[in-house]
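Narrative of activities, Objective 1.

The group set out to show that a structural description can be obtained from nothing but a protein's sequence at a throughput compatible with the screening campaign. Below is one input-output pair from the validation batch, recorded exactly as produced.
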Amino acid sequence: MKTIQYFIFAGLLFALMACKRQDTILFEGEERISFFIGEYDVDSTSYTFAFDPVKKERDTIYLKMRIQGRTHDRARTIKVKPGAGTTAVLGEDFLFPEVVLPADSITINYPVILINTPKMETQALRIVAEVVASDDFLPGGTGQVIDGSKAINSYKVWVSNKPERPIYWDDAEYYFGSFSATRIRFMISVLGISDFSYDAIGAYGSYTYPVILRNALAKYETTNGPLIDEFGQRVTF
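Output recorded for this entry:
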């Protein structure tokens, strides 16, 4: 009887281990690389030149990449290409440079260079960054990794020069109020920054900047009266 119970237990344990192996990416075989995002992050972001304190001709955003395999004591090349669904023009609206992963490195921030072109004033362009094979890496496996992050082989970037609502504003709204172009332009003029995400300003900015803005707005209203946004709403902080 004990022997039967042992085999039943061993069988259940083996089945459980097999299920876990199916849910987790195993890094074997060829050297691979992929983008990666946090467990609760989405595979896209947006950027607008419209809110920069000083007009920029180009800017750079960074996408996180991670190898699937071993580190090496030499630098290795990474390649990214425009994927299906890209509406921006490579070489005109954006650049994908060939990047080198330093020796003994596991992760790297891949630079996507955005170019401020006239068409962005009237339309948002989509860039799909897709990992492709280089001399050193194949595109990686996709899915959730042991630490909870997710490996993906394509990432979408929306870029424009229109006053559009940043994707992080759902979180920023608690501290700064509902989004309007008038509101964020006033914030930029006072604080001299254009990124109000928690990643950029942290807890200090989230609680300190509204106080600074409230005082600046009171001074503005003394001379100009209430600040009314494009929706006919009075701006407050």
